[in-house]
Amino acid sequence: MKKLSLIILAIGLFSLLSCKKDETQAVLKSAPGAPSGLTVPGGAALVLDTANKNVLLKYTWNAANYGAQVIPSYTLQMDKQGNNFSHATALGAVNTLLTFSVLTSDLNGKLLPLLFDPSVPEALPMEFRVMTIVKDINGNIIDTIKPVYSVAVQQSITPYYAPIVYPLLNVPGSYQGWNPGDSLTTIASVGSNDLYEGYMNFPDANTEFKYAKGDWNNNWGDDGANGSLEPGGANIKAVEAGYYKLNVDMVSLTHTFLKTTWGLIGDATPGGWDTDTDMAYDAVNKVWTVTVNLTAAKIKFRANKGWDLNYGDNGGDGSLEPGGADISVPDGAGNYTVTLNLSKPIYKYKLVKN
After folding, report:
1. Strands 153-158 and 45-47
2. Strand pairing of 99-103 and 56-62?
3. 20 to 30 Å CA-CA from 34: which of 85, 107, 246, 341?
4. Global pTM value
5. 226-253 pLDDT, tens per residue?
6. What is the pLDDT of residues 4-27, one digit of tens each?
């Protein structure tokens, strides 16, 4: 009789657990209601101001509807309009809460890299949405339940200029009057790791230059013209006039310089992936430009009609990376003015449909 009672109890517990499991599955399988009513601070247009850099910007929304047995986790996402959130930036995530606040300076810092020239802020067409995933009562993400998204809210945001300070290495030379303190003729260590890189235009043949740290007390040249640097060493000579990529390793005291010309390549260009469309250098604005008919396909930038040095855009944010992803033509087929800016530490590009 005791054994029978234990069997009945086991069956009862199994049935109870099965019912609970079926009940949970039933809840999780029901069509969830996406979060709604997302509101963004500032309405249709928001202008950020350095005077308000410590002000919190508050975003709110209405809850997603999954049922009582799951815990919704909300992530506020931001991307440029037209990207369809393919390169979304997560501003932050909260569990169950229906609001999230971001510091003005933090939002500004995420927007500045999207500008072609951060020192000249302009309105950026952005959009926001809330992504919702669900967790069980133990806080574990339920992978079998797909995320749901709120309706996107569009907003024009104008950031303010806040310079990012990178370690700099001066490049004094005959092309700029041998001034070791000239802040406009520098290359930068973006990783703050003593590896410096940048582009410099030498308009005359046989340009001579050196590297310095703001004055002549700390300068380096190349005594043997062999790629090694020596303190106070001999002037470095660029025999041909042109636009040069400079790299300096201050740990190993080595350097390279490469003359470059730039072009577009890709199935969006007239020459496809086989023939470059040449760009022209604008010495006044320090950019490379070309006006060209493009199709609704892909492009990249490459130097010297080869693949040893090429740039693409891994994040779809207007910044370039060596060997980065192919760039989609943004507004369909048409005539575009394409601009490549390698004059600042973060390399940029833009495509403007004419």
Report:
1. parallel
2. antiparallel
3. 107
4. 0.79
5. 999 999 999 999 999 999 999 999 999 9
6. 343 333 444 444 444 444 444 445
